Amino acid sequence: MEHSILKESTSKNLEVYLKNRVYEQLYYPDFFPIKFVNQLSYETLIGSKGNRVAADIVTYNASAPEKTRKVIDRLTGEIPPIRMKKIMKETDLNDYNILKATGATNMQQLLDLVFGDVDACVDGVNGRLEWLAIQALSRGQVSLSTTNSAGIITQNSIDFQLPSANKEVEAAANNYWTTGAYSTNTPITDIDTIVAEAKVAGSSIKYVVMNHSKWVAFRTSTQVQNYCSAVFVGGSVVKLVPTLQQVNDMLVSQGLPTVIVVDTSVTIETAAHTQTAYDPWLDSSAADRYVLFCPELPLGNMLVGPIAMETNSPKQCAMAKKGHILVSKWSTVDPINEITMGETNAFVSWPTIDQCYILDTESHTTWGV
Predict the structure, then answer these.
(1) What burial letters (b/e) apply to 303-319, b meaning 16+ CB within 10 Å?
(2) What DSSP letter does each residue of 154-194 carry, written as one string?
(3) What is the pTM of this model?
(4) Alpha-carbon distances of 242 from 209, 219, 225, 236, 239, rounded to whole Å
(5) Where are the domains of the chain?
(6) Helices 212-220, 244-253: inter-axial angle, 10-degree rounding
(7) pLDDT tens digits, one per residue of 298-334
(8) Fold classified for 11-51+71-161+267-279+296-357
(9) In whole angstroms, what is the distance from residue 280 CA to residue 259 CA?
């Protein structure tokens, strides 16, 4: 490990650049905002929140009736590192030297070359957190494999312990959302049913969360269009495809939760450097099935732990942070390379999952099949 070859890549310059750089807004902080913790292990208390239990009316001088304590589940584990690096090789460094030699006329190209890898690393770490959070939202678990994480740490699914009773399916096959049965499916009825079921269990559903393709299926449904809008043209009723605002206005008027559409794409690069962009709402087999019902936002936190590179800084590294993401730069010799790395230690904590429901819109038998 040697000092950065790029004269512009000092810790001070990195700090100034990252402080002023505005990156694309992401969804995960809305659902799981960052929470810093002091250790790399975590314990999520599932069921620590719930509906109030009423006290009893008793006579004077009588003992207060005892109530049972809510059963609390514990999900424990280690907060994993999330890292990526970009390498400027000899050809890239030759381009850097040429741009330096040509002076101010190519200043923007020079800055793009110097800080392009910095942007890529910050975006990459945020992209993985986006993937992690939205995978959790869509099915209540995260499935890791060599196709979706080159640095895979487990082949097993990470289950956030959604209760079995909260895993919902459709009433019949002709109620599926995306099989073209738009004249027979009943998304509004689905919402009514789950809201009522949740209320009995002590959960007040306020949001229905889905990806863009599920939203397209939802707004195309005849039942949804009947509820939202229709106009008379030449004496005939013409149904209109409603906007998200129109749908939410209708749902609120009926005392129902509002729809949130999560529309994002994350590019995953395998160890063989094959890149594939896909919707992180899809499950491990790329199936588009699920809709989340939740009582509040945020749902929990993205737990962020200490980073060893920051607390034990090599003197050769130029380093700075963008929020919780540490960016470091250094060089190597034989061959000569410039390394840029972005990293954080982070994982989802979802203590309210027992109050949430997930509907499999493409099955009427077994959830997730």
Answers:
(1) bbbebebeeeeeeebbb
(2) -SSEEE----GGGEEE-SSGGG-SSSS-TTT--HHHHHHHH
(3) 0.87
(4) 17, 6, 7, 18, 9
(5) 11-51+71-161+267-279+296-357, 164-262
(6) 70
(7) 999 999 999 999 989 888 999 999 999 999 999 998 8
(8) putative capsid protein of prophage fold (3.15.30)
(9) 18
